[in-house]
Amino acid sequence: MKKLTPLFISCLLAFGSAACQNPAKTSADAPDNVNEVVATAPSKDTTETTKDDAQSEIRRRQLNADIRAREQRNNLAGGGTNRTKGDLQSEVRSKLEANIPNGLLAVEATDDGTVTVTGTVPVAAQLDKIEPLSKEIKGVNNVIVKATVAKPKN
Q1: Residue 97's closest CA among 110, 106, 86?
Q2: Closest CA to 147 of 122, 114, 120
Q3: Angle at 107 between CA 109 and CA 49, to 5 degrees
Q4: Element (H, E) at 116
Q5: I need a surface site. Which of 11, 90, 99, 129 has the fewest CB within 10 A?
Q6: Can you tell me the mean pLDDT for 13-38?
């Protein structure tokens, strides 16, 4: 026991000194402080590429897989249809984002499972898809669609 105590204390001190070192930065080009202004904005091509990636088929599949995973976690946790407002908003927003490309939609939910969708979609057929897609989310009891059809600005 007398030999283990100094070993334990020295390990504790070594671990403590290593933990107090400055952590590495997340990237080499990250600013050194929060007040430093980033000099370059993304180019138009980068913005378009990012936009196309966000609306791609792969992204839609990822969003739908995330929704299925949330549903499975909720089922395993013994959760029923009583969901928090934040969960409903997030899942409905993801579902609509995945299945209605170029839509500018906002989602509000209430504790009783009512979801209100506002914003714009570019095509009338997409407007008709909002309610059935929203009701696919467990816990959504009622959908109020206040969205309108508006052509996207170029």
Answers
A1: 106
A2: 120
A3: 150
A4: strand 114-121
A5: 11
A6: 58
Strands 142-145 and 114-121, bridge-based pairing: parallel
pLDDT score, position 103 = 80
Tokens of 40: 């370059």
Residues facing 109 on adjacent strands: 115
CA angle 149, 105, 48 (to 5 degrees): 90
Task: Give the predicted TM-score (pTM) of the model.
Answer: 0.57
The pair of three-digit structure tokens given for residue 74, joined into one six-digit string: 């909720």
Give the model's pLDDT for residue 149.
87
Task: For residue 139, name the pLDDT band (cuts at 50, 70, 90).
Answer: confident
The predicted-structure confidence for 64-108, as pLDDT tens digits, reads as follows 788 788 777 777 766 655 667 888 888 888 888 888 877 888 899
**Tokens 């997340």 — which residue?**
26
Which residues lie closer than 8 Å to 141 by C-beta, 6 or more apart? Answer: 81, 112, 113, 114
The CATH number of 51-154 is 3.30.1340.30
How far apart CA 85 and CA 74 sit, in angstroms, is 14
